[in-house]
Design brief:
With about 130 residues, this protein is an all-alpha fold. Helices cover about 50% and strands about 0% of the residues. The termini are far apart. It is a single-pass membrane protein.
Length: about 130
């Protein structure tokens, strides 16, 4: 005779066996993981062949990259930040901003061209 206790024991035993099998299936074999072959685009293929480990070009490219990074981070960006701060927060008038132009009246001489401003025409229009 089988009762509820025996059915429960059988169910627990089957679950334990399934868990054990599942855990064994999670272990990787020496052949795993199976990855697809690596396909490179044209630019990546060029760099892969151009800068191989141990190649003298790789050292030169790395030095050039390090120098460019140093100049950008340690020279250009701080210089830009300082210039921006001085230009817009310290100076009273920003560079290139003209507050007022000198007034020019008829008969005045224009300094840049040497011309004399002609007198204004009398305009007779029909508006009020």
């Amino acid at each position: 005779m089988s009762g509820p206790a025996e059915d429960e024991k059988l169910r627990v035993q089957q679950l334990r066996a399934l868990r054990r099998r599942w855990l064994r299936d999670q272990e990787l074999s020496p052949r795993e993981p199976v990855l697809p072959p690596r396909r490179l685009g044209p630019v990546a293929a060029f760099w892969e062949s151009f800068v191989r480990p141990g190649d003298p070009w790789r050292l030169q490219v790395h030095k050039f990259y390090q120098a460019g990074r140093f100049v950008m981070l340690r020279v250009l960006l701080p210089a830009w930040a300082i210039t921006y701060y001085l230009k817009y927060h310290v100076r009273k008038t920003p560079h290139g901003v003209v507050m007022t132009n000198p007034r020019i009246f008829p008969g005045d001489r224009i300094l840049e061209t040497g011309e004399i401003m002609p007198p204004l025409r009398d305009e007779h229009h029909q508006h009020h």
